[in-house]
Design goal:
Blueprint lengths: L1 H25 L2 H29 L19 H29 L13 H13 L1 H12 L8 H21 L5 H35 L2 H15 L6 H18 L3 H21 L6 H4 L8 H33 L1
């Protein structure tokens, strides 16, 4: 009797599972985005909970994350725990939904590894991203000096306070004494976001929004807006918004996620390498804000020209790829 019940329950669960998969696969693309995003938050919660359970089993008090003094010491358990939580967040919130998207929904999307015939595009975009750093710094400085209307002064004060807390934590993260710490930070701050965030935003969200609005430009800019919003750092919202659009066009014109992944990796990784080479305390403000300082207007103009030329080259190369693909199909 028990065996019959077990078989019946298993068949019922399998049928429900199939129904859920079919419902997700046939839902409107924007509903799919919402469901997959909620799934990401759920997966993140599960992974973070596992970390907290492990901490409890190791006898570590939860106050390790609320002690301000502990979070200023790069060697403290609190900082290491935050780094592990950051890894779990990236995997759960961004990577898990992409896996479900590819496995359950499928359909037209940018290839994650295709580089054949695109090596020149990859090199051009890598150079473009490096050249864009002064422009990004200029936009970040401009963005940080914007003020909200007086009736939103409380919101602005909160935004600036959270930005300062984030900057202090990043400075602690970037305090490195060994090659091992450098490699770990490159993984945490550059490699992992380049993979997880790009598969989520450019690999999953942008194609789904494109299926809904039928307009590549709208899909790219809406995704870029959400990309910047998800970071919850509003004093750097505009440069991250522009960066998201650049990464979106790179994915769309090349047909592969490899370009935005490399661009994202360079944008984050160069900051880590510069901090390692110079030192977080020895780094001069003019070095890390190149392009945002007085008298550097021509550097920003030159960077803008290089970015424009690089993106134009990508667009033309993408057109040639499309023409070649159409010729081969016919």
């Amino acid at each position: 009797m028990l065996a019959i019940f077990t078989i019946f329950a298993g068949a019922k669960l399998n049928a429900n599972h199939q129904n859920m998969r079919e419902a997700l696969k046939t839902a409107h693309p924007l509903i799919q985005v919402g469901i997959l995003t909620l799934l990401g938050f759920g997966a993140m919660f599960v992974l973070l909970s596992i970390v907290f359970v492990v901490l409890m089993l190791l006898g570590q008090p939860m106050t390790v994350l609320s002690d301000p003094s502990a979070l200023t010491d790069p060697k403290s358990m609190g900082v290491m725990t935050l780094k592990v939580l950051q890894i779990m967040q990236s995997i759960g919130l961004f990577f898990v939904p992409y896996l479900v998207f590819r496995r359950v929904i499928g359909g037209p999307a940018y290839d994650i590894t295709a580089v054949n015939g695109r090596w020149s595009m990859l090199l051009v975009f890598a150079f473009t991203m490096v050249a864009a750093l002064p422009l990004i710094n200029f936009l970040a400085e401009w963005n940080s000096n914007l003020n909200l209307p007086s009736f939103l002064s409380g919101v602005e004060e909160w935004m600036r306070s959270t930005e300062q807390d984030a900057e202090r934590l990043i400075k602690t993260f970037l305090t490195m004494d060994t090659v091992g710490e450098l490699l770990f930070n490159l993984f945490l701050i550059a490699f992992l976001p380049a993979i997880c965030e790009e598969v989520f935003f450019r690999g999953m969200m942008q194609p789904l929004i494109l299926r809904s609005v039928k307009n590549a430009h709208v899909a790219i800019w809406v995704t870029a807006f959400l990309f910047s919003f998800f970071h919850m750092q509003f004093l750097g919202f505009f440069p991250r918004f522009i960066l998201g659009a650049v990464l979106g066009y790179a994915a769309h014109w090349s047909g592969t996620l490899m370009l935005p992944m490399v661009g994202h990796l360079l944008n984050n990784g160069l900051a880590v390498l510069a901090t390692w080479y110079i030192g977080i305390d020895a780094m001069q403000p003019k070095v890390e804000t190149l392009g945002a300082n007085e008298g550097e207007e021509m550097i920003v103009v030159l960077a803008s020209a290089v970015v424009l030329a690089g993106m134009t080259s990508l667009y033309l190369s993408g057109k040639r790829l499309q023409k070649k693909a159409a010729t081969m199909e016919s």
